[in-house]
Amino acid sequence: LSSSLEYCPSNFISSGINAEYGDDDQCEQLTAAEVLQRLEESWINERVSPYLQESQQELVDCLLEQCESVESNFSRASSFAVGIHQLEIQRIKYMSTDYLRTRLHKIEKHAEYALEEQKDQDGEEGVLKLSPAEFVYAREHFRNLQLHLKETALKHMPSPFNNLDKKKSITAPNLNSFIFFKVKEDTNNVLIDPRGDPVDLSRDEIHISKFLPIATLLNERKINLV
Amino acid sequence: EEHRSPPEQLQPFNEDLIRQVFAEMEALCDANRSDIENRADANDNKMLPSIHLRHSALEYNRRCVLAYLKSRLDRIVRFRWDHGAVLPPDVQSNIQEHEKQWFIKYNRTLANYMRSLHGLDLTQNRVPPKSLKIQVRCVEEYGELETEAGEIVMLTLNSEHYLPLSECEPLIRQGVLQHMSGS
């Protein structure tokens, strides 16, 4: 799959599209090729990691807008070029839908955990993992589930069993599962194993570790999951 | 019981069994309460083991019932993602009333989310596309299919077509078309 996506950036570059990728106060000017590259990395990270990563909704929106503008130029291009562009657009759509689908399934599985985490971070400078639409989805989904369980089962049980005890019912993701990762930048003094010593990570090395210690590195984009 | 059936099907909701479980829980709880009330004094711990036992049984029953309900919901969700918002009739006949209500709400929540995504349908595009059009054979009578381009294709049994992937994908998942590899 990665090889089939390799020729995509060159196609977009040749059509000369520049994408504006907004990030709160700063507006990063990225070419569409770079946006695609970032989304591909985020997509692989999301598929492999046991829990939700930071929402890259802006990347998805940006790419989809690009696709729409390319599609609107189809009448001017030859039919051969149209075919290639269409295939490219299909592949981008596949990547975007798979990325969003993976996130949605994780939200459905761990709705309560995600909502609690978001609530804890409200008002702080923390990184919000759920996009606004995803937050609404998580809340609705969890509420529906609670209502359904209450109506069908908990209502008929004698107390104190008829409450959905938060501590017992939260399905937290397994943040200690092992994953492989590849180092993007040289980083020194990283504590991977709490019982061991800090290690130095050099670029392009591949390591395996539990998810939790390297979660911050992932957020800082210093590593990529494989 | 639910785990034994294959994942593509949904057994009818076992209303009687659930009701029996609730009745049993009620009885256990009453027995526990009466034991606690009838203690000679606050330090009389003779009945403690039986109270513990009943309490564990109650917790166990509760967990089983919730797990059963949850696994049914998970199956219904899988049907939604594979077949679309309208469930096949054999699944519909096995769904209980509350589950039907839950499914309607789930559809609504999902539709609201997908609407915020520039019209991207998350149930499509399940496989990485290798080419724009694929060769398919029709294995079930389907009738007429209108493609996005406006052409009308007649899908009769064993007819072969060369159609765009986006049109074929949902039909392949439903079992109407079969992808022909090679040539």
Can you describe this structure in just a few lines?
The complex is a heterodimer of chains A (226) and B (183). Chain A is an alpha+beta fold.
Describe the protein.
- The complex is a heterodimer of chains A (226) and B (183).
- With 226 residues, chain A is an alpha+beta fold.
- Chain A is 54% helix and 15% strand.
- Chain A has helices spanning 2-5, 7-14, 32-48, 57-72, 79-109, 111-121, 132-152, 166-169, 211-219, and strands spanning 18-23, 26-31, 178-183, 187-190, 199-201, 206-210, 223-225.
- Chain A has a three-stranded antiparallel beta sheet. In chain A, strands 1-2 form a two-stranded antiparallel ribbon.
- In chain A, a hairpin with an 8-residue loop joins strand 4 and strand 5.
- In chain A, helix 2 runs antiparallel to helix 3, helix 4 packs antiparallel against helix 5 (79-109) and helix 6 crosses helix 7 (132-152).
- The longest helix of chain A is centred in the middle third of the chain and has 31 residues, at 79-109.
- Chain A is flat.
- Chain B has 183 residues and is of the alpha+beta class.
- Helices cover 50% and strands 12% of the residues of chain B.
- Chain B has helices spanning 15-37, 48-83, 89-92, 97-115, 165-174; strands at 133-138, 143-146, 152-155, 160-164, 177-179.
- In chain B, the strands form two sheets. A three-stranded antiparallel beta sheet of chain B has the order 4-1-5, covered by helices on one side. In chain B, strands 2-3 form a two-stranded antiparallel sheet.
- In chain B, strand 2 (143-146) and strand 3 form a beta hairpin.
- In chain B, helix 1 (15-37) runs antiparallel to helix 2 (48-83) and helix 2 packs across helix 4.
- Chain B is elongated and about 80 Å long.
- The model of chain B is unreliable at 1-8 (pLDDT under 50).
- The chains are: A alpha+beta (226), B alpha+beta (183).
- Chains A and B meet through helix 4, helix 5 and helix 7 of A and helix 1, helix 2 and helix 4 of B.
